[in-house]
Amino acid sequence: MRYERIKSLFGDDFSKLQNAKILLLGVGGVGGHCLDCLSRSGVKNITIVDFDTYDETNQNRQIHSELHEGEIKVEALQKHYPHVEIINAKIDEQWVRDFDFDEYDLVLDAIDDIKAKLALAQKCYKKLISSFGSAKRLDPTKVQIGDIWKSYGDKFGSKIRYELRKRGFNKKYRVIFSSEEAIVKDKGSFVGVTATFGLVMCSEAIRKIKETKSV
To answer: Is this model's pTM higher than 0.90 or not?
Structure first.
């Protein structure tokens, strides 16, 4: 059976994975691998949101990108994961303000827009798992997950913490970050790190689902 080995790990809790409703924002280098992990683990109710198309520069890190150059990402990914719901939209601050997150058990943030990330934290921190910067790094063993206020080693994350404090936000939520200092200034990226971010995000989502009383 397809899910036999994951069922052996979860036992009766496996039904929680199949019933959980997940909203995944961004399906690039981090989000794409998170989507693959969730799907292989038996999560069926997944909605993915992105507006971008695949191009050649994505092929070093984004899953399935080499097969769909020029195609809209969410539409291309639905061919591989036909159970997902797709929303082709640009996730900015206004989109976050307008969107209804109530029906989802978890919101997974794999986007780069700082204002949108801040709006997400303020609106749905109780169900949020957020990814910080995965680019410019080479060491996947430095990838960690923890409380937003205990994260470190990432200028992108530092800016988010600073802006949240300015807005008077002091709630806790989980973030994925790397303690490795950026080793280049340009947009260098390594799939060993970006994929690790996505897999850690998936793992944390599954852990949180497993710990719920019922889904």
So the answer is: yes
